[in-house]
Amino acid sequence: MHAEGGMSVTDLQELIDKRIPDNRTQLETSHANLMDVADYCEDNYLKERYQEKALAESKQYAIQSLASVAYQINKMAA
């Protein structure tokens, strides 16, 4: 038997019971990690004598973080 949208009831139940909670946990972990990176970048920028260097490093972390989040969301949507 299929629920609306073409999913079987079993698949829908697995989505509700396992996949959504697991994905939420992964996103919460990513959020905590991103907050740590943001704190590091801010602290590093304020302490670094050569702030241009710290800013360049922060930009690289931002690019990597955005790519990571995009990948994670794409993987979850599949």
From TrEMBL:
GO molecular function: SH3 domain binding; signaling adaptor activity
One GO cellular component, as annotated: actin-based cell projection
GO process terms (BP): neuron migration
Official protein name in the record: t-SNARE coiled-coil homology domain-containing protein
Lineage of producing organism: Eukaryota, Metazoa, Ecdysozoa, Nematoda, Chromadorea
Superkingdom, taxonomy of origin: Eukaryota
Family annotation (Gene3D superfamilies): 6.10.140.1620
Entry-linked InterPro entries: ABI (IPR028457)
Family: Belongs to the ABI family.
